[in-house]
Amino acid sequence: MTCKPTIIPSPEDVDTAALREKYHLERERRLRSEGQAQYVRPSGGAVADYAADPHMPVTPREPVFEDLDVVVVGAGFGGILAAHHLAKQGVSGFRNIDTAGDFGGVWYWNRYPGIQCDNDAYCYLPLLEETGFMPSKKFSDGAEIQAYCRMLAEKYGFADKALFHTQITALRWDAASKRWLVETNRGDKLRARFVIMAAGVLNMPKLPAIPGIDSFRGKLFHSARWDYAYTGGAYDDPMLRKLADKRVAIVGTGATAIQAVPHLARYAGCLFVIQRTPSTVDERPNPPTDSEWAQSLKPGWQQQRMANFHRAAMEMFAPGEPDLICDIWTEIARNMAAEFDARGWPETPEAFMAQRENMDYRVMERLRARVAEMVEDPATAEALKPWYRHLCKRPLSSDDFYPAFNRSNVELIDVSATKGVERMTERGFVANGIEYPVDCMIFASGFEVTSDLERRWGIDTVEGRDGVSIYDHWRHGPLTFHGTMTHGFPNQFYIGYIQGGLNASVTEQFGRQGEHIAHIVRHALDRGASVVEPAREAMDEYVRVFNEGQIDMSEYQMSCPPGYFNNEGELNAPWALFRSWGQGWDAFQAMLAEWRAKGDLEGMELSQ
Ligand code: NDP
Q: Which residues are 252's β-sheet partners?
């Protein structure tokens, strides 16, 4: 099927200078001097138990005392893919450990009504060719993905080994035994040759430090801990009937809120949608998987599709390559390719970038026009229009979000003037000087993605050689070799967005990292090495090359409002989601493949 370019204004119809200026202003309006410090770890009142598991009861178990080859921290896609690659390399003495009650990571925790993946499922769900599984539609439901996570763990034989509802409290490298000593809140004491840190990217719910949040006396929960006991309905049947007589507010208009709002609007007596920055929300055709198409796929199709997605969404669309994904993620590349094919490709990188910027404005104009078409009240429509570059925030799609604002029980509350919810009281929230009494506040306020590492890992103690804390070691940002290991923390590996290549698909990113780590573990075991770690000089050299290769994104950033994509607007934050290998994903993978092929773990120090 050929994927057509979208209908957008012509190049001359956008006033680039005016839009650039408007984007800057919209950013400035929302920028907060505290940056990431605007979010807090809640301590008391209605938010004290915000992280507790509403989905599964914690069942008692005996503590585990064991020697293992590997402890895998996390049982979401990062941990599952690491485990899969360990198993593939013949390493079986490992356990996944997770605070959740089952496999799935974000797909375990996030069970809010309407949850679906926003990415093409044929790319997002890993290992489809190996498992023979085919997603039921283009954007999978959350439940399908969570079930797939468990299926992977069962198929590859590590489902029964995981320790769930278990928080690691300490990880200490013991030089004498050459093992990591692992302690948990369940009294476990494990000794592991290796540890793989795969805690995830969206694992830690974040809450804004709204003055008075602790004083609120109503019901309050985070979207990643949806309380169906309160709202009515269930994960597989989200009829929120208990909200019929309730006044409900939802904070946020990101990926989560876009999906939950239509359900809340349908059931709540009254719904306030509290918005600081609007999202881009395109149409969402979500057809069931065409079985004829699925049967026609040739071996290697998923890797090809993922590469196609990555190139269109994050790099430059290859001339002549068809757009296999055909959604909001790939629209800019698709449109550009069509225009360039018709009028000729730009001859210089500068000309390309200028036309890309122009295309970005035109696509955003189309998306803004969509709001005006779908939302009846002009003032509400105006407030819902996004004013920033296309990938400043995650591009979203929904056919139900905008129509929700045409209902008489739904009100948009724009809090951009106060850079967020102004205040909370015992009875509700205050916005633009007005108190809104509510029964329930739902925080779809996102996750800590680039905050201090100790907040995100939630592990009190992580000590490498000589008792050095990794939190001190990385106080000013990560120092790694290939984004995989760091000197001074032998036998410890990292999965996530950390000083390596960046892929548009998080599961592809995690999978490749797991594969690379499993290679090193296998190699070390085969050579009878008890200890493997990067040499100091090799790590320093890698960090130097990594930093030198950085592409200056500051101008682009200035057209983006704050959010988790850009460290809440902090320009030089120690942790930055998209600080990645400057020459791109393919070049990074090629470098690692060459390094592995040499077979000597160059740059690593191995000892008995
Ligand atoms: P986001 O971080 O995307 O959104 C959080 C929302 O809360 C934003 O609208 C933010 O506004 C708002 N907010 C934060 N603080 C305040 C405040 N003080 N006052 C008012 N509003 C505030 O979180 P989500 O949970 O929506 O999504 C996070 C990520 O999780 C997604 O980007 C995606 O990667 C993943 N996800 C994927 C889904 C999928 O595939 N379907 C579904 C859900 C999540 P502002 O923008 O101004 O900061």
A: none
Q: Rg for the chain (alpha carbons), in Å?
A: 24
Give the pLDDT band (50/70/90) at residue 314: confident
Both 132 and 168 in one domain: the answer is yes
pLDDT digits (tens, 9 = 90+) for 225-278: 999 999 999 999 999 999 999 999 999 999 999 999 999 999 999 999 999 999
State pTM to two decimals.
0.96
The count of structural domains within the chain is 2
Which residues form ligand 1's pocket by a CB distance below 6 Å? Answer: 30, 116-119, 202, 208, 210, 223, 251-257, 274, 276-277, 394, 415, 420-421, 444-447, 562-564
Model pLDDT, residue 557: 81
78 CA to centre of ligand 1 in angstroms: 21
In a domain, 82, yes or no: yes
Ligand 1 pocket test: which of 258, 259, 276, 396 has the largest number of ligand atoms within 8 Å of its C-beta? 276
pLDDT in tens, 266-290: 999 999 999 999 999 999 999 999 9
Residue of 219, 243, 205 lying closest to 428 (CA atoms): 219
Does residue 302 lie within any of the structural domains? no
Indicate which CATH number applies to the domain containing 117: 3.50.50.60
- Same-domain status, 109 and 92: yes
- Going from the Cα of 53 to the center of ligand 1, the distance in angstroms, rounded, reads 20
Q: Please state the rounded mean pLDDT for residues 455-464.
A: 95
Residues 6+ apart with CB under 8 A from 557: 566, 571
Instruction: Say which residue the tokens 């993946």 belong to.
Output: 117
Looking at the structure, tell me whether residues 459 and 500 fall in a common domain. Answer: yes
Based on the fold, state whether residues 119 and 264 are members of the same structural domain.
no
Amino acid at 491: N
Atom number, ligand 1, closest to the C-alpha of residue 415:
20
Residues 461 and 601 occupy one common structural domain: yes
Mutation pick for ligand 1 pocket among 251, 329, 412 (CB with most ligand atoms within 8 Å): 251
Q: What is the mean pLDDT of residues 280-304?
A: 97
- Enclosing domain of residue 402: 35-50+205-283+393-443
In the chain, % helix, strand, coil (3-state, to 5) comes to 40, 15, 45
In a domain, 535, yes or no: yes
